[in-house]
């Protein structure tokens, strides 16, 4: 029924609204692989509950809530895992290689980067010093850059100064 589907949607959206603001900062302070494994094990256990008690609507809603909550913690851990797996020097070399594009005409089938989009959490704690580091690191980018502040950028209450530093950089 429509009411049943609405309940399932609310059960899946509620953890995102309630837990997402806490999940990013919490995951940043925990071992990411352990967070991902715990989230997956929890989601697997919840999914197995449905195999046994699938006839009770309240349990279906609770499982939907739990599955979504697991994703709220899994996704930021997975998204921030690469820098913990690759040495800093390897990341720098990869970034430098991307910036050394020939300025001449593009060959058939080749594409150019149009814009660099930085989608939030530009700093760890929203400190101006961190914004200066980001500006220095991005100075090699040879393309327009658009950045959006994330929850970490508001953590110290200096988001206006961080924004000013980024705009001037």
Q: What can you see in these coordinates?
A:
The protein is mainly α. It is built from seven helices and two strands; from the N terminus they run αααααβαβα. It has helices spanning 2-28, 32-52, 57-79, 82-85, 88-99, 128-138, 159-168, and strands at residues 116-119, 145-148. The protein has a two-stranded parallel sheet with strand order 1-2. Strand 1 (116-119), helix 6 (128-138) and strand 2 (145-148) form a beta-alpha-beta unit. Helix 1 runs parallel beside helix 3 (57-79). The radius of gyration is 21 Å and the shape is elongated. Mean pLDDT is 81; it is low at 97-111.
Q: Give the end-to-end Cα distance, rounded to a whole number of Å.
A: 54 Å
Contiguous low-pLDDT stretches (5 residues minimum) are 97-111
How confident overall, as mean pLDDT?
A: 81
Element order, helices and strands? HHHHHEHEH
From the helix content, strand content and strand pairing, which structural class follows? Answer: mainly alpha
Proportion of strand residues:
under 5%
Strand order of the largest sheet: 1-2
Rounded Rg: 21 Å
Q: Counting H and I runs of at least 4 residues, what is the number of helices?
A: 7
Envelope shape? elongated
Main sheet attributes: strand count, strand direction, barrel closure: 2 strands, parallel
Topology, number of strands: 2
Percent in helix = 55-70%
């Amino acid at each position: 029924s429509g009411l049943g589907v609405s309940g399932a949607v609310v059960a899946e959206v509620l953890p995102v609204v309630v837990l997402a603001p806490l999940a990013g900062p919490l995951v940043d302070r925990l071992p990411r692989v352990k967070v991902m494994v715990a989230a997956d094990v929890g989601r697997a256990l919840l999914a197995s509950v449905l195999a046994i008690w699938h006839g009770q609507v309240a349990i279906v809603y609770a499982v939907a809530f739990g599955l979504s909550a697991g994703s709220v913690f899994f996704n930021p851990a997975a998204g921030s895992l690469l820098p913990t797996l690759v040495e800093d020097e390897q990341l720098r070399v990869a970034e430098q290689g991307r910036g050394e594009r020939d300025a001449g005409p593009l060959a058939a089938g080749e594409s150019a980067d149009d814009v660099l989009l930085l989608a939030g959490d530009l700093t760890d704690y929203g400190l101006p010093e961190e914004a200066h580091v980001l500006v220095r690191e991005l100075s090699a980018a040879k393309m327009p850059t658009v950045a959006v502040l994330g929850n970490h950028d508001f953590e110290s209450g200096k988001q206006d100064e961080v924004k000013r530093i980024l705009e001037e950089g």
